[in-house]
Amino acid sequence: MKKLLLLPFFALLMLMSCQQEVVDITLPAEAEALTATSTLTSLMKSTSTKDGSSDNIIDKANCLSVDLPITVVVNGVEIIIDSKEDFAVIEAIFNEFDDDIDNLEIIFPITITLADYTEIVINNPQELKELAQQCNGENEQDDDIECIDFQYPISFSIYNTQFQVIDVVTIENDEQLHRFIKRVRQGEVFASINFPINMVLADGTIVEVHNNQELQTTIEDAKDACNEDDNNDYHDDDFTKERLDALLMTCPWVVLDMERNQDNLNDFYREYVVVFKNDNVVKVRARNGDMLTGTWTTRVTDHGALIKLEFDTLVDFVLEWYVYDLEPGRIKLYQEGGNRIILKKNCDIVFDITKERIENYLQECFWRVARLNISGTNNEADYIGTPLKFFPNNVVKIRINGEFVTGTYNVQAVNAGFILQINLEGRPNLNLEWLVKFLEPGLIKLQNNNSEMVLERHCPDGDGDLVFIDQILNTGIWNVALYQDGDVNKTEDYYMYNIDFLETGWVKVTDPNNGIIDGSWLSYRNNGLFLGLNFGIEPPFQVLNHRWRIVEVTETRIYLKVINSVGVVEKILVLERQ
């Protein structure tokens, strides 16, 4: 019996914390099991090793990290360091004068974390110096791999000696992976990775891998493909102007955080998109679609790399910014006086939107209405389980109770960009002229005056987990084995109701008197696996109108939860097949 387990269990390995993330399980061949002495196991250990170079400006040691907060005295100025951003303050003080002698004194005791995540209390400078001397020097080769990372969560199947699955463990971060691989290398655990998993390259590119050999090759190809910047400065002194320019122009950059003159401006500028073009042209796209054009130049000095931005109207961006931190896919800019910008690279963003691109995206697979806010009222619940499908020749269909309702759509160019016109009978909330605000593979954001709609792509045929779930649900008749609303068990409200999930997306419910209740259903992926149920206003099933998180699926049972934004379980629904 194949079983898809999605609720992690940590008791076997005593890992950090309980999680409620959905994890995909695929049963591998025995050859895919990790071995204690394999090259892949060693590479996974090095990839999950803690990189200690980001705080070298404090401890001058690549193989250990200082736990924050700590207090330091920099050139006579006492500073409390409670985040990585504060490292830039140290750098700014060091750079204030060219002819002084820079000095940093740590106020002990402090706690440090080694490359294997062991924590040690350090009581004086001599103890720190002795540990730091065990690390390799500046920019010397070391064991940790920094040019590629795992995209978490990932999961492992745990086997007994007969190669039978006895548990599934979910890993959420490098520390958990490092400790897990240590157990594998010591022969304490017999396990295999549940593929596919994603790896993140230094430039932010996502690579999907499907087996052990692909994973080993991907890590080996990437491990020396970037500059690890293992020197004792906080900014990257190794950057040339040419390399910085090339990095800036690779992809669009999204504003994650912005502060000007110590004022937090995230409400104004978060999700603005910045594109650095040839001929020193920089373009910024605001959330409302407005396009602002300016100029950009770079220079590299003895104190680091700088980016100068100039705009006629976007005055908060106008400054010459220090590049004070470079991480994979992320750039942090800083200037004294409480000014900073954090940019994240996103190569999926389509900055130059065209009519053809919009139409091509729309015609890819189905689209779910993930968000629909009409003049301040959320209406997306009306579209649970009812995906849209855009066809050539301006035909759009919405699937309701297993049947398609046909309408029309049109993409037109206007002064502000492009609008999507939808005309579906009986769906007035969709029948608006929507301005296309954001376009990337898998996601379209639309706006109309005070209304907003977000469409997310749904391609079930290429997802093995969704295919498995759909096949299970399509087989046989199901009953409500448990429905719990908060602390109240309401299972008896559904006694003798029979539920039939049909391939068309129609969920047919037969009551004890042979009456029929119609509904729509859709299994989909969205940072986890979900089952959307929509029975309209028909009691008692109208209270089941939710996007249910799938926790566990077997051939005869599906376990579902509704979890609110703070992680509290609000509802539980268990369906069992007759």
DSSP summary, beta strand count: 40
In total, how many domains does the architecture comprise? Answer: 5
Find the structural class using helix and strand composition.
mainly beta
Q: What's the number of helices?
A: 10
Helical residues, percent: 10-25%
Q: Work out the strand percent.
A: 35-45%
Q: Tell me, briefly, the overall form.
A: globular
Mean pLDDT: 86
The radius of gyration computed from the alpha-carbon positions, rounded to a whole number of angstroms, is 27 Å
Main β sheet profile: 10 strands, antiparallel
| Poorly predicted segments | 1-31
What's a concise summary of this model?
By secondary structure, the chain is mainly beta. It contains ten helices and 40 strands.
Secondary-structure topology with pairs:
Blueprint lengths: L3 E2 L33 H10 L7 H4 L4 E3 L3 E5 L2 E5 L5 H8 L9 E3 L3 E5 L4 E4 L2 H8 L15 E3 L3 E6 L5 E7 L2 H12 L5 E3 L3 E5 L4 E4 L2 H11 L18 H8 L4 E8 L2 E2 L1 H4 L3 E4 L4 E5 L5 E11 L2 E7 L8 E9 L2 E6 L3 E7 L9 H8 L3 E9 L2 E2 L9 E4 L3 E6 L2 E12 L2 E7 L9 E8 L2 E6 L2 E8 L5 H10 L4 E8 L2 E2 L8 E4 L4 E5 L5 E10 L3 E6 L11 E8 L3 E7 L5 E9 L1
Antiparallel strand pairs: 1-38, 2-6, 3-4, 3-5, 6-7, 8-12, 9-10, 9-11, 12-13, 14-15, 14-16, 14-22, 16-17, 17-18, 18-19, 19-20, 20-21, 21-22, 23-24, 23-31, 25-26, 26-27, 27-28, 28-29, 29-30, 30-31, 32-33, 32-40, 34-35, 35-36, 36-37, 37-38, 38-39, 39-40
Helix pairs in contact: 1-5, 1-6
